[in-house]
Amino acid sequence: xxxxxxxxxxxxxWSTGFSAVPEGSxxxxxxxxNLYEGRVEMYFHGSWGEICSRYFSHLEAQVVCxxxxxxxxxxxxxxxxxxxxxxxxxKDGAIIDDIRCRGNELSLLQxxxxxxxxxxxxxxxxxxxxICHPPQTIVG
Length: 140
Fold this sequence. Notes:
By secondary structure, the chain is of the alpha+beta class. It has helices at 2-15, 58-67, 73-76, and strands at 26-34, 37-44, 47-51, 80-82, 94-100, 112-115, 129-131. Strands 1, 2, 3, 4, 5, 6 and 7 form a seven-stranded mixed beta sheet that branches. A hairpin with a 2-residue loop joins strand 1 and strand 2 (37-44). The longest helix is centred in the N-terminal third of the chain and has 14 residues, at 2-15. Residues 1-19 form the signal peptide. InterPro entries: SRCR (IPR001190), SRCR-like_dom_sf (IPR036772). This is Scavenger receptor cysteine-rich protein type 12. Residues 26-133 form the SRCR domain.
């Protein structure tokens, strides 16, 4: 009897699109990316996608780095916004067409977002990346 309950529960979760990835999560990807450098992608409505913006600045980069876990304001101030295609385009398409932050938000979802209406909303040169500077760990 318990086996049937688990099977039904799994079927319901599978069919409703349950995901372990929280809405608004971000990740860095692209060529030569690492934990603190890369093209910014956001998880939204069940899929990952690029963030594009013509106005991406150090303010938005600070929010990305904060969302990645950097809390020290001195290190956040060193966050760098990248818009030169060095990380390439993502394979999943764009989700955000434009983003504006004040710089003190905890998540990109707290910024002003314009969502993509079609697949061509991310013209060449507008997908965004960041370079975050995490606190250095001294090994002694």
